[in-house]
Amino acid sequence: VFMAHFKDLIAWQKSIELTTELYRLTEVFPRHELYGLADQIRRAAVSVSSNIAEGQAHFSRREFCHYLHHSRGSLAEIETQIIIAERLHYISKSQLDAELQRIHEIGRIINGLINSLSAHKAA
After folding, report:
1. pLDDT of 79-96, one tens digit each?
2. Three-state SS for 89?
3. How many secondary structure helices (H) and strands (E) does the chain include?
4. Closest CA to 15 of 37, 23, 2
5. Which residues, including other chains, have CB under 8 Å from residue 43's CB and lie 6 or more apart?
6. In the chain, which stretches have pLDDT less than 50?
7. Which long-range contacts (CB under 8 A, 24 or more apart) does 57-66 make?
Protein backbone atom coordinates (compact mmCIF):
# COMPACT_ATOMS: atom_id res chain seq x y z
CA VAL A 1 0.00 0.00 0.00
CA PHE A 2 2.82 2.42 0.83
CA MET A 3 4.96 1.59 -2.19
CA ALA A 4 2.27 2.85 -4.56
CA HIS A 5 1.53 6.48 -5.24
CA PHE A 6 -1.95 7.44 -4.06
CA LYS A 7 -2.98 7.82 -7.72
CA ASP A 8 -2.35 4.07 -8.13
CA LEU A 9 -4.89 3.19 -5.44
CA ILE A 10 -8.19 1.94 -6.84
CA ALA A 11 -10.06 3.63 -3.99
CA TRP A 12 -8.60 7.00 -5.05
CA GLN A 13 -9.29 6.39 -8.76
CA LYS A 14 -12.89 5.40 -8.14
CA SER A 15 -13.46 8.30 -5.75
CA ILE A 16 -12.27 10.70 -8.47
CA GLU A 17 -14.80 9.12 -10.85
CA LEU A 18 -17.51 9.51 -8.19
CA THR A 19 -16.61 13.17 -7.66
CA THR A 20 -16.71 13.88 -11.39
CA GLU A 21 -20.11 12.24 -11.72
CA LEU A 22 -21.51 14.06 -8.69
CA TYR A 23 -20.33 17.40 -10.09
CA ARG A 24 -22.22 16.58 -13.31
CA LEU A 25 -25.35 15.58 -11.40
CA THR A 26 -25.36 18.69 -9.23
CA GLU A 27 -24.96 21.02 -12.25
CA VAL A 28 -28.68 20.67 -12.91
CA PHE A 29 -29.80 21.35 -9.33
CA PRO A 30 -31.98 24.45 -8.90
CA ARG A 31 -30.02 27.69 -8.74
CA HIS A 32 -31.01 28.26 -5.10
CA GLU A 33 -29.18 25.03 -4.20
CA LEU A 34 -25.86 26.21 -5.64
CA TYR A 35 -24.52 27.06 -2.16
CA GLY A 36 -26.72 24.55 -0.39
CA LEU A 37 -27.09 20.87 -1.06
CA ALA A 38 -25.07 20.89 -4.30
CA ASP A 39 -22.11 22.51 -2.53
CA GLN A 40 -22.32 20.04 0.37
CA ILE A 41 -22.34 17.06 -1.99
CA ARG A 42 -19.38 18.43 -3.93
CA ARG A 43 -17.33 19.17 -0.82
CA ALA A 44 -17.97 15.72 0.65
CA ALA A 45 -17.09 14.10 -2.69
CA VAL A 46 -13.81 15.99 -2.97
CA SER A 47 -13.05 15.03 0.62
CA VAL A 48 -13.12 11.29 -0.14
CA SER A 49 -10.22 11.31 -2.62
CA SER A 50 -8.39 14.10 -0.80
CA ASN A 51 -8.32 12.13 2.45
CA ILE A 52 -7.13 8.99 0.67
CA ALA A 53 -4.30 10.99 -0.93
CA GLU A 54 -3.34 12.82 2.25
CA GLY A 55 -3.43 9.68 4.38
CA GLN A 56 -1.28 7.67 1.99
CA ALA A 57 1.21 10.53 1.73
CA HIS A 58 1.91 10.35 5.48
CA PHE A 59 3.59 6.93 5.01
CA SER A 60 2.22 5.78 8.35
CA ARG A 61 -0.27 2.92 8.62
CA ARG A 62 -1.94 4.53 11.60
CA GLU A 63 -2.28 7.91 9.89
CA PHE A 64 -3.49 6.30 6.66
CA CYS A 65 -6.19 4.40 8.56
CA HIS A 66 -7.23 7.64 10.27
CA TYR A 67 -7.69 9.39 6.92
CA LEU A 68 -9.44 6.38 5.40
CA HIS A 69 -11.99 6.56 8.22
CA HIS A 70 -12.58 10.20 7.27
CA SER A 71 -13.10 9.14 3.65
CA ARG A 72 -15.62 6.57 4.79
CA GLY A 73 -17.43 9.24 6.79
CA SER A 74 -17.57 11.48 3.71
CA LEU A 75 -19.12 8.61 1.75
CA ALA A 76 -21.87 8.37 4.38
CA GLU A 77 -22.44 12.14 4.04
CA ILE A 78 -22.75 11.84 0.27
CA GLU A 79 -25.15 8.92 0.59
CA THR A 80 -27.38 10.93 2.91
CA GLN A 81 -27.22 14.03 0.73
CA ILE A 82 -28.06 12.29 -2.54
CA ILE A 83 -31.01 10.52 -0.89
CA ILE A 84 -32.27 13.99 0.06
CA ALA A 85 -31.62 15.19 -3.51
CA GLU A 86 -33.68 12.32 -4.90
CA ARG A 87 -36.53 13.00 -2.49
CA LEU A 88 -36.51 16.64 -3.60
CA HIS A 89 -36.64 15.37 -7.22
CA TYR A 90 -33.26 16.93 -8.12
CA ILE A 91 -32.05 13.52 -9.32
CA SER A 92 -33.95 10.47 -10.50
CA LYS A 93 -34.26 7.17 -8.67
CA SER A 94 -32.04 5.52 -11.29
CA GLN A 95 -29.37 8.21 -10.81
CA LEU A 96 -29.58 7.70 -7.05
CA ASP A 97 -29.23 3.93 -7.44
CA ALA A 98 -26.21 4.28 -9.75
CA GLU A 99 -24.43 6.63 -7.34
CA LEU A 100 -25.28 4.48 -4.31
CA GLN A 101 -23.71 1.54 -6.13
CA ARG A 102 -20.51 3.58 -6.68
CA ILE A 103 -20.48 4.77 -3.07
CA HIS A 104 -20.92 1.25 -1.69
CA GLU A 105 -18.19 -0.12 -3.96
CA ILE A 106 -15.74 2.58 -2.82
CA GLY A 107 -16.75 1.91 0.78
CA ARG A 108 -15.93 -1.79 0.38
CA ILE A 109 -12.55 -0.94 -1.16
CA ILE A 110 -11.76 1.48 1.67
CA ASN A 111 -12.83 -1.10 4.25
CA GLY A 112 -10.47 -3.57 2.58
CA LEU A 113 -7.61 -1.07 2.83
CA ILE A 114 -8.38 -0.42 6.49
CA ASN A 115 -8.50 -4.17 7.21
CA SER A 116 -5.25 -4.73 5.33
CA LEU A 117 -3.49 -1.92 7.21
CA SER A 118 -4.86 -3.14 10.53
CA ALA A 119 -3.77 -6.72 9.84
CA HIS A 120 -0.19 -5.51 9.19
CA LYS A 121 -0.31 -3.53 12.42
CA ALA A 122 -1.39 -6.58 14.40
CA ALA A 123 1.23 -8.82 12.83
Report:
1. 999 999 999 999 999 999
2. coil
3. 4, 0
4. 23
5. none
6. 1
7. 57/6, 59/2, 61/2, 61/117, 61/120, 61/121, 62/121, 64/1, 64/2, 64/113, 64/117, 65/114, 65/117, 65/118
